[in-house]
């Protein structure tokens, strides 16, 4: 019984990490129809900026309020990177899908190379608060606090995104833009500002995933964003392209499936089962669990 509880909670921690990355992808595709293969770069920038800030930024550190300051710096760096990418590279290429893919894939590769050139290709130890190295006993299971931190962060991010989409002016513009972008433009609303805003939100969520994911794994590496991006795309497709809630459901399914199968089967079998689940969803329900129209 303890093993099941532990696997469930660690699986939910992994699901939370996937959701933090996938939520931004889902928002960006839902409004702007952009498959952003450079999304992992935002994660990497957030992780490395947090790592750098913890050791160099005045007021930042690995414990207490200093850790919060370091994470905030990392999130700000990831957000700024996302905004710059949208303004400089993506905005001239809206409605040009092939060029978008080429540019974002190229940027992803260039970003990894830049991180490797700056800080090396090897993984570096990530400064973590002492309490994240410890465990909490839940129904007899010793659950790592780093995973619980991810779960709490993902729940808060999901609630914040849903509240933003439901109760703010720009949230309503984004929801309307997903349904009928031409009508929103015809009403005189500058939907390009909404594009930039969803890129900023996606970049912030990815950067947060980079910082907290590095706490969870204990290290930071240039390839970290790319490996997580693969599963984030799987989550987005299973949940429904453009659906944040669908991505949350899919992340839970993928995280739990991966964790249980890897534990009770052989190592790596969980990844194969996740790909098999993706294939089944594409065959039986190509629009995903929630479909594009259900962004909120």
Automatic annotation (TrEMBL):
Signal sequence segment: none
Subcellular location: Cell membrane
Entry membrane topology: Multi-pass membrane protein
Keyword terms of this UniProt record: Amino-acid transport, Cell membrane, Membrane, Transmembrane, Transmembrane helix, Transport
A GO term, aspect molecular function: transmembrane transporter activity
A GO CC term assigned to this protein in UniProt: plasma membrane
A GO biological-process term: amino acid transport
InterPro entries: ABC_transp_permease, BCAA_transport_permease
Keyword Transmembrane helix: yes
Claim: Membrane is one of the keywords in the record: yes
Pfam families per record: BPD_transp_2 (PF02653)
Matches recorded under PANTHER family: ABC TRANSPORTER ATP-BINDING PROTEIN, BRANCHED-CHAIN AMINO ACID TRANSPORT SYSTEM PERMEASE PROTEIN LIVH
UniProt similarity note: Belongs to the binding-protein-dependent transport system permease family. LivHM subfamily.
Protein name, as recorded: Branched-chain amino acid ABC transporter permease
Organism (species): Micromonospora endophytica
């Amino acid at each position: 019984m303890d093993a099941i509880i532990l696997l469930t909670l660690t699986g939910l921690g992994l699901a939370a990490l996937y959701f933090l990355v996938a939520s931004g992808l889902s928002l960006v595709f839902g409004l702007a129809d952009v498959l952003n293969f450079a999304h992992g770069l935002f994660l990497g920038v957030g992780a490395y900026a947090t790592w750098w800030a913890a050791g160099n930024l005045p007021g930042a550190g690995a414990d207490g309020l200093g850790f919060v300051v370091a994470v905030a710096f990392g999130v700000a760096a990831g957000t700024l990177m996302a905004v710059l990418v949208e303004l400089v590279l993506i905005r001239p290429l809206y409605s040009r899908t092939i060029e978008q893919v080429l540019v974002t894939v190229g940027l992803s590769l260039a970003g990894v190379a830049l991180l490797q050139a700056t800080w090396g290709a090897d993984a570096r130890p990530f400064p973590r608060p002492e309490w994240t190295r410890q465990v909490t006993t839940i129904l007899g299971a010793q659950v790592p606090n780093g995973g619980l931190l991810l779960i709490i962060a993902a729940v808060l991010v999901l609630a914040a995104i849903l509240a933003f989409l439901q109760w703010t002016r720009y949230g309503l513009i984004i929801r309307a833009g997903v349904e009928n972008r031409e009508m929103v433009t015809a009403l005189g609303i500058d939907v390009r500002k909404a594009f930039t805003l969803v890129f900023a939100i996606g970049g912030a969520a990815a950067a947060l995933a980079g910082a907290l994911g590095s706490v969870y794994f204990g290290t930071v590496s240039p390839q970290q964003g790319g490996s997580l991006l693969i599963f984030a795309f799987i989550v987005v497709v299973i949940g429904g392209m453009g659906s944040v809630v669908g991505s949350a459901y899919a992340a839970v399914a993928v995280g739990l499936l991966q964790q249980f199968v890897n534990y009770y089967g052989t190592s790596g079998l969980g990844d194969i089962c996740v790909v098999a689940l993706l294939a089944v969803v594409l065959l039986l329900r190509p629009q995903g669990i929630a479909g594009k129209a259900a962004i909120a």
